[in-house]
Specification:
Arc Repressor Mutant, subunit A, mainly alpha, 2 domains, Rna Polymerase Sigma Factor, Chain: A, 166 residues
């Protein structure tokens, strides 16, 4: 029993260290069919089950990103036949801290909404880029070549800037 308690403590510490990654990935992949809380629970279960197998061959944050994204994509695949498009007006309103000015809030809401319309791989790319991961780290997290990361991010930025309303 003490061994299980130690495992739980280490797992809890790891989740606390990477709660921003877990929250961000779940937030961007959540849909009406796969709500944020359900997705976060699935991610935490996946992390818990595989935590004992983490061998430290990559950065812990890289491993967390991989588990979060793969679990999110799997959850979305399970509902693939249920996925439907949502109009821009139906996107959720995001509440930001009060000290943020109205212009910043409007820009962030637009950005979150624009990102929510990207395909799953592009969401992962832009999410990690916004978290200031290097192209090499993003490539390692997603298991794709660095040059693919660079070209896809360039295309995503062009796509997002061409839609810019603000």
């Amino acid at each position: 029993m003490p061994q299980q308690t130690e495992y739980n403590r280490k797992f809890t510490d790891m989740v606390r260290r990477h709660e921003k990654i877990i929250f961000s990935v779940c937030f961007f992949y959540a849909t009406a069919d796969v709500p944020f809380d359900d997705l976060r629970q699935e991610v935490l279960i996946s992390l818990f089950k595989s935590f004992g197998n983490f061998r430290g061959q990559c950065a812990e944050s890289t491993w967390v990103y991989k588990v979060c994204i793969n679990t999110s994509l799997l959850a979305l695949r399970k509902t693939l036949n249920k996925i439907h498009t949502v109009s821009f007006d139906e996107t959720p309103c995001i509440n930001f801290q009060a000290e943020t000015n109205d212009d910043s809030i409007q820009k962030l809401q637009w950005l979150y909404s624009a990102i929510s319309h990207l395909n799953p791989l592009d969401k992962a790319l832009i999410l990690m880029w916004l978290d200031e991961l290097s192209y090499e780290e993003i490539a390692q997290n997603l298991g794709i070549p660095r040059n693919t990361v660079a070209s896809r991010l360039s295309r995503i930025k062009v796509k997002l800037s061409s839609k810019k309303e603000i």
